[in-house]
Amino acid sequence: MQTNFNRSPAFKIAVAAIFAALVAAATLLFVIPIPATSGYFNLGETLIYVAALLFGPLVGAVAGAGASIADALVAAQYAPGTFTIKGIEGFLVGFLTKKLNQKIKSLTICATIAIVIGGFEMVAGYFLYETLALGYPVALAAVEIPFNIIQMLIGLIIAVPIMHAVLRIFPQLKSQL
User: Fold this and answer.
1) Is 176 within the bounds of a domain?
2) SS3 of 4, please?
3) How far is residue 103's CA from residue 18's CA, in Å, rounded to a whole number?
4) Domain with 158 in it: what CATH number?
5) What DSSP character marks residue 135?
6) What angle do CA 22, 67, 14 make, to 5 degrees?
7) Taking each helix axis from N to C terminus, what angle separates 107-128 and 79-101, rounded to the nearest 10 degrees?
8) Residue at 43 is within a domain
9) Which of 114-118, 131-135, 144-148, 165-169 is the least confident region?
């Protein structure tokens, strides 16, 4: 008997909470400070992408917002921006993967396109947040752009194979896509 446990609201809430905690932990586990802006490079991006790719836009959004927990501990000035920027990023990756998967047969291509678009939202979001909300000069905020792009690309390189591995082990999760 096949069950639709992964479609139930309780399951999605539980998975979203777990991924929010995992994103916070992964973000704190590997931190490379960027002294010019007090920002930091981290690996939490990877788990935001995994959550969004496997469980869709709402879980991706909550997982993304989980990064603000880490920011509250490490770089508090970024926490409000991170809540929104990473939440939107997770939502976009999950949403675009689902939409693209209806038109493109390759899940790898769908995931890659979705991550690149979501990742560039993150890059632009932090640039705007730093200049508009934190008052950093444009040149200073631009210092983080390459780090954020590298963070997105590393997240992409790690998340897509993880997605495929999880889907091989738990094929019932494909119904989310």
Assistant:
1) no
2) coil
3) 31
4) 1.10.1760.20
5) -
6) 45
7) 160
8) yes
9) 144-148
Residues 130-152 as b/e (b if ≥16 CB within 10 A, e otherwise) read: bbeebebeeeebeebeebbeebb
Q: Does residue 162 sit within a domain?
A: yes
What 3-state class would DSSP assign to 39? strand
**Total count of domains within the chain:** 1
Longest dimension (CA), the chain: 59
pLDDT at 31: 81
Looking at the chain, how many residues does it have? 177
Q: Tokens at residue 64, please?
A: 């993304």
**pTM score over 0.85:** yes
d(C-alpha 46, C-alpha 111), whole Å: 12
pLDDT tens, residue by residue, 89-129: 999 999 999 999 999 999 999 999 999 999 999 999 999 99
Q: Give the other-Cβ count within 10 Å of 77's Cβ.
A: 15
Tell me the C-alpha distance between 115 and 45, whole Å.
10
Smallest CA-to-CA distance from 51 within 23, 73, 71 is with: 23
